[in-house]
Amino acid sequence: MGETEYFVPLEISAEAYLRLYQGTARTVLARDTRGLKVSFPADALRPFVTREGVHGLFVIRVDASNKLLDIQRKTF
């Protein structure tokens, strides 16, 4: 088996992401557009953090072992 892509809408406030960044929580648990649960390290979102937090639709790619390969913000 190869890679799997998940399309995950995220709406994380700046305050909530700060808790992730400070280590209170190290993992983000979200649902993709099909309702599947997706878990990944909070650190992977650092490039996407703004003053408002993390917002948008993200493409999360994992390998056959469910190891995170890539996260990209989907642009329209």
Describe this structure as you would to a colleague:
Strand 2 and strand 3 form a beta hairpin. This protein has one domain: OB fold (Dihydrolipoamide Acetyltransferase, E2P) (Beta Barrel). With 76 residues, the chain is mostly beta strands. The chain is 11% helix and 47% strand.
Strand fraction equals over 45%
Task: Report the average pLDDT across residues.
Answer: 90
User: What is Rg?
Assistant: 12 Å
**What is the number of helices?**
1
What is the H/E order?
EHEEEE
SS content category: mainly beta
Strand order of the largest sheet: 1-4-5
CATH architecture: Beta Barrel
Find the count of extended strands (DSSP E, 2+ residues): 5
Distance between the termini: 29 Å
- Domain module count: 1
Approximately how much helix is present in the residues? Answer: 10-25%
Write down the overall geometry.
Answer: globular
In the predicted model, the low-confidence regions spanning at least 5 consecutive residues are none
Major sheet: size, sense and barrel closure?
3 strands, antiparallel
CATH class: Mainly Beta
**What is the third-level CATH name, the topology?**
OB fold (Dihydrolipoamide Acetyltransferase, E2P)
